[in-house]
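Onboarding guide, step 5: your first structure request.
Type a short instruction followed by the sequence, for example:

Predict the 3D structure of this protein.
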Amino acid sequence: MATGGPTVTVITTITTNPTAIRVIPITMIMPTIMTTGITITTIITATTMITVIPTDLHSPALLQMAQVVSPAFPVGSFSYSGGIEAAVARRMIRGPEELQGWLGTVLETGGLWTDAVLMAAAYRDENVADLALALIPAAPRRQEALETGQALVRHACQLWPVTVAEAAYPVALGQLGKAMDWPLVPLLQLHLQAQLSNMVINATRVMALGQARTQGMISDLSEQVLEVASKAATSTVDDLGGFAPLADVAAQSHETLGTRIFRS
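The system replies with structure tokens like these:
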């Protein structure tokens, strides 16, 4: 092997994002190494593949995904609490600790987990539009999913040259991600964090929460967001299901509240 050229350390990297992986046989890379005078200082063992993971932070896809899930994107997410308003009114949630526990449950085994699985299925072009609506446990939540999904499709198709069918929000977002060729795992991560952020921000309108405390909740849940996104990316519809009955009851009882700020 030629020496005297630049030195590079070759490392195999494991990732939970299968859509962001491009695997290149080592036999395709070795001729280039031999002719460019690169000295390998770390020898790859026990494998015949190098995994190349795109990490370009200047990628337009990253900004596009962040834009779509942002509260500034006009889907009307500010008008929905996801049942939190009813939970606070009925004293299911009485303080910050209970709110954070509530959010963690919804993320891990409740509606956000269901949405993530459906989003991943839609990304793979599976027909889950009707299933997504059938799994929604309350009329206000169904209205929320449909109206935000329709708004997402309408505005996204005006911004970019794609065609996406109207569907419940998580299904529409999965279809949009596939049409735009966005990587699935980062899209799931950004979506879940945005949903939690929206729920926390809306909770400040119905209970006493300071800004520092709300941001702390989002930060505390970040590791759980990463785990759920990774798990959902490799899930199938057989993984649908969970257990967050109080969240479902709160969503169902919202429309019977005497005074309401939110639509769900």
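Each response can be followed by summary notes, for example: The longest strand covers residues 22-25.
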